[in-house]
Design a protein that fits this description.
Order of helices and strands: EEHEHEHEHHHEEEEEE
Helix content: 25-40%
Distance between the termini: 48 Å
Shape: globular
Number of strands: 11
Radius of gyration: 19 Å
Number of helices: 6
Mean pLDDT: 83
Strand order of the largest sheet: 1-2-5-3-4
């Protein structure tokens, strides 16, 4: 049995894979990954064939709508250097909140062709592991022939604080840096007269403003 990977397939981190929209020919290969989730960053969810494959193999599907398809009207073609970024930071934040939870793994993440949108999300994700800008952009260029000023600015200016609710520290992926994580102690709910241990894990203020921050809340 031949195994055919999706286009631009690669490993981002342990049990986190990236590539293009999976097709029927990729099913034997995807079975070997023993996936728990397929994360689709596409205009539409997976097609009927791939949906059936997921149901048969107990793979959950998460779709975050992104418009990464080229325009149908080729007469309105925009030069590469003038193209704007096809996603917003809200999309990246939703992806990050999902990807830092190791309970969702193994994951296959894809956009239409496995290039621009997936690369933008991965580039922003790398900042939580404190990769250098040079390393992030070099990885981006492996999957894209070039990077324009809008895409570079999108990556470099991603320095938001991402709030993660309901995730215990032990359930976060290990490649998210923990050196800036501190813990606070107990809090008391006076209105209900109930004392509960609320562990709030936050990122220290020592992180430079140029870097994004993760803020974990777990009870």
């Amino acid at each position: 049995m031949s195994l055919v990977t999706p286009l631009h397939f690669n490993t981002v981190q342990l049990n986190l894979y990236r590539g293009s929209s999976p097709r029927e020919i990729n099913i034997p290969f995807l079975k070997r990954l023993r996936l728990k989730y397929i994360l689709s960053l596409t205009p539409e969810p997976l097609d009927e064939t791939m949906t059936a494959f997921c149901k048969e193999n107990d793979i959950k599907m998460k779709h975050i709508k992104c418009n990464d398809k080229p325009p149908k009207d080729k007469t309105k073609k925009v030069k590469r250097k003038k193209k704007t970024v096809p996603i917003e930071y809200d999309t990246v934040i939703e992806c990050v909140a999902f990807l830092v939870d190791r309970r969702n793994y193994p994951i296959y993440m894809h956009c239409h062709n496995g290039e621009l949108i997936t690369s933008l999300v991965v580039a922003c994700l790398r900042k939580f592991s404190y990769w250098s800008t040079v390393s992030i952009l070099n990885e981006f260029l492996i999957y894209n022939s070039s990077i324009n000023v809008h895409e570079r600015s999108f990556i470099e200016h991603f320095n938001l604080e991402v709030d993660i609710q309901g995730l215990k520290p032990k359930d976060k992926v290990p490649w998210v840096s923990g050196q800036f994580i501190t813990k606070t102690s107990k809090s008391k709910n006076k209105q209900k007269d109930i004392t509960k241990a609320e562990v709030i894990t936050t990122v220290s203020n020592n992180i430079p403003n140029a870097l994004p921050k993760l803020k974990f809340h777990s009870i």
